[in-house]
Amino acid sequence: MVDDNTYGLLMQHKWTIDRSKKGYVIATDMNLYERRMHRLIAGAKPGESVDHIDGNPLNNQYTNLRICTHQQNCYNRKLNKNNTSGYKGVSWNRFIGKYTAQIKRNGKQIILGYFQDKKEAAFAYNEAAKKYYREFASLNKL
């Protein structure tokens, strides 16, 4: 998805989906830095990251893109594929026999608490994510 006003810019290139790069739309006729459609539309400079607000790499509408730091972009990540609890920031602690809610802040892991119910742990993660990550928080669906 793109905006009508970017059509002229985008039609100068041949586009495809890069299967090895998480489904980003890339131009096959440009160098590595410039070839991602979302970076071109957002006008990203070297060292800047571009975040897809809705997490969909195929939604390259200008209103869905924002320049950010790499760290902010990581805040908006979706659930990891190897997650077993079904909730971001929640894992089973077999030594305690409870779910652990945790979040990363400035490179440090913060334990938010231990919970009998994984939804309670997910709620604790959501509250911390809103506090620490603000508009970049990717929240659990409860």
Overview of this protein structure:
The protein has four helices and seven strands; from the N terminus they run H-E-E-H-E-E-H-E-E-E-H. The relative contact order is 0.12. The two termini are 28 Å apart. The chain has a three-stranded antiparallel β-sheet, with helices on one face. It has helices at 7-10, 37-42, 70-75, 118-133, and strands at 15-18, 24-27, 49-52, 65-68, 90-93, 98-105, 108-115. The protein is elongated and about 60 Å long. The protein folds into two domains: 4-68, Homing Intron 3 (I-Ppo) Encoded Endonuclease, Chain A (Alpha-Beta Complex); 77-136, GCC-box Binding Domain, CATH 3.30.730.10. It is 23% helix and 25% strand. With 142 residues, the chain is α+β, with helices and mostly antiparallel strands. The longest helix is centred in the last third of the chain and has 16 residues, at 118-133.
Largest sheet: 3 strands, antiparallel
Mean pLDDT: 91
Q: What would you call the structural class?
A: alpha+beta
CATH topology of the largest domain: Homing Intron 3 (I-Ppo) Encoded Endonuclease, Chain A
Q: Which stretches are poorly predicted, pLDDT < 50 over at least 5 residues? A: none
Named CATH architecture of the largest domain: Alpha-Beta Complex
Order of helices and strands: HEEHEEHEEEH
User: What is the count of DSSP helices, taking H or I runs of 4+ residues?
Assistant: 4
What strand order characterises the main sheet? Answer: 5-6-7
Task: Compute the number of strand runs.
Answer: 7
